[in-house]
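Mods, move this if it's the wrong board.
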Amino acid sequence: MAPAARAGAEARVADMTWLVTGGAGYIGAHVVRALRDADITPVVVDDLSSGHRAFVPEGVTFVRGSVLDGELLERTFAEHDVDGVIHVAGFKYAGVSVQRPLHTYAQNVTATATLLAAMADAGVGRIVFSSSAAVYGTPDVDLVTEATPKHPESPYGESKLIGEWLLADQGRAAGLRHTSLRYFNVVGSGTEEIRDTSPHNLFPLVFDALLDGRTPRINGNDYPTPDGTCVRDYIHVADLALSHVAAARRLAADEPVEPVYNLGSGDGVSVGDIMRTVAEVTGIDFEPEVAARRPGDPARIVASGELAARDLDWSMRHSLRDMVSSAWEARRGA
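Not the wrong board. Structure tokens:
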């Protein structure tokens, strides 16, 4: 794009309003702040089933309601002249989804279809979808790429893959411009005002155990990895939020995008590394209890972020120590 054309496109983007579904949640609230910092007006829709009203910054429009409510979405699009959507809302607990498949599909598939229908009726033609690396299941490769076969192993992973299909089908049928961002383990905090409150994620579980005087637990230390513990992608939530905004900007400027991007570290860190870093950052000396392996847990799942680095300003700007220390400060300030 020529410099003059790019400048014009950037000016148009700065005047835009983007709806963030799930914008009162841990990830969504960071996306809202990143949009605001980029001079893009965010509007939040969240039913507060797992989000927190206090996570939405003062001055940002907040609409309490479910993405399953098509009429509410239509009113929101009309009242706020929405130009695009960053769809973060969803039921994100893979393990629980096995016990609650119908709930998972309602929240992640039916809600996405409802959102796309409301967008079509309102003439909103751009969406960034918060997908998941759960679409890959247990890949038998050292480094996951966007071309790695998809074999989801939970209703959650299946629902995210179906969400990607819905976007692609609507793109073919109605010209929807879209991209989906797949990522693994999101940690850290970009501000002490927001923290991960999930009852299922590693960092909250470890911090809660330490603050309660309990010893954190890990599942297995006999994997074929350097320290015997599982190796995973852990990425900082603020880095993730920046790439959501970069994707929105690219869509708004009518620049080409891939249908999906992995937001991966390229090398990963082990659960053992995390535990050692937590002990250093918190000043609480502990040796984690070692429980049995969890069935189906692979030794290593790490993704390449090469395509996202090329197009979406993706990079690992934060070290593991940054991730742990920022999350710990947010937890202690709660």
